[in-house]
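Ops channel
N.P.: pipeline sanity check, posting one input/output pair.
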């Protein structure tokens, strides 16, 4: 099956063509991602209105280019897949409405994809990984631990009580004037820093389970920065190193607890068990190193897709779409764009981490 995938949930506009073979192997025939860093940099974060307009202006051209790079036409596609949520609603609508138009015009099936499911399946872009595996999804908008037990069967083990890890990086960078996006900026500054100079708090020391919290770390970084009379470049480097180390350590400690729970749930699974880390923060080298050490202690193998498939991309959306299409699962043209769409809907509804509203339980 060959699927065109479209993605526009946050600040990357993306299109890809992917082929799924009968044995489950996949080929990425084209993969294009258009970032918006320059548009959002003056504001130190993603501005939803700017992102939505940029997606609307670019998405049809990217779809055309993805087909051209794959050497195919719309008629060659078996289906059109697009992110249907969760995400910034104006952005989500850009890819979804484009996919609806293409599906209607070409007479092709539409697959409305959960963006988080794309991340959950992303390791299969690299290798034919067998279920189950433990997923740490860590990005600017999401930080959660998911037991990926089978296709369509996902169990939440932990989530953030407040902010995502990527937001902690972005806000720390903004406080210190390091630029946007914050994750790469903090990592660059931290290369010459002394992480032990500033003593930042460890979140949730007395809380059981696998949930995360980054609001306190963000506040501690700001208060530490404000306490420095005339901060210079070395102060920036030292505080960046301390913030990065604290975020990485917190992610590793809570993930290590999830590994213990996962191992108890699957006692007969061969060692080393798979731990997949996906999302933009997975590109951070200190985060990966901390997770790799934790995985080795627990008898796990750390798997992180290449950076281009850790961050938001359309190849993972096309993959999720192809998996649904292979099972005969398609969507009607009235499929809604969703700001919220939890991967484990039961847990989000019955045991919400940070509540719900008119738009439904949070992811």
């Amino acid at each position: 099956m060959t699927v065109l995938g479209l993605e526009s949930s946050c600040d990357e506009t993306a299109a890809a063509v992917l082929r799924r073979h009968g044995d489950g192997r996949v080929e990425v025939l084209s993969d294009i991602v258009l970032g918006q860093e320059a548009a959002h940099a003056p504001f130190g974060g993603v501005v939803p209105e700017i992102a939505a307009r940029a997606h609307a202006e670019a998405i049809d051209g990217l779809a055309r280019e993805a087909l051209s790079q794959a050497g195919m036409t719309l008629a060659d596609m078996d289906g059109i897949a697009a992110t249907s949520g969760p995400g910034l609603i104006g952005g989500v609508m850009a890819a979804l409405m484009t996919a609806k138009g293409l599906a209607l015009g070409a007479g092709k099936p539409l697959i409305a994809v959960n963006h988080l499911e794309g991340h959950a399946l992303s390791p299969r872009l690299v290798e034919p990984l067998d279920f189950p595996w433990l997923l740490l999804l860590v990005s600017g908008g999401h930080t959660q631990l998911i037991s990926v037990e089978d296709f369509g069967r996902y169990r939440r083990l932990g989530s953030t009580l407040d902010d995502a890890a990527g937001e902690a990086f972005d806000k720390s960078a903004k406080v210190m004037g390091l630029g946007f996006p914050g994750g790469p900026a903090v990592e660059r500054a931290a290369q010459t820093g002394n992480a032990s100079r500033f003593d930042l708090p460890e979140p949730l020391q007395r809380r059981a389970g696998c949930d995360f919290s980054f609001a306190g770390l963000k506040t501690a970084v700001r208060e530490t920065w404000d306490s420095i009379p005339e901060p210079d470049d070395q102060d920036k480097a030292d505080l960046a190193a301390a913030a990065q180390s604290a975020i990485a350590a917190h992610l590793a400690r809570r993930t290590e607890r999830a590994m213990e729970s996962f191992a108890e749930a699957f006692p007969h699974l061969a060692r080393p068990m798979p731990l997949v880390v996906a999302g933009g923060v997975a590109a951070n080298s200190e985060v990966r190193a901390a997770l790799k050490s934790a995985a080795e202690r627990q008898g796990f193998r750390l798997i992180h897709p290449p950076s281009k498939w850790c961050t938001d991309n359309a190849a993972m959306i096309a993959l999720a779409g192809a998996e649904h299409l292979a099972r005969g699962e398609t969507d009607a043209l009235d499929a809604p764009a969703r700001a919220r769409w939890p991967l484990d809907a039961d847990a989000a509804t019955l045991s919400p981490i940070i509540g719900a509203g008119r738009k439904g339980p949070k992811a």
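N.P.: looks fine end to end. The chain has a mean pLDDT of 92.
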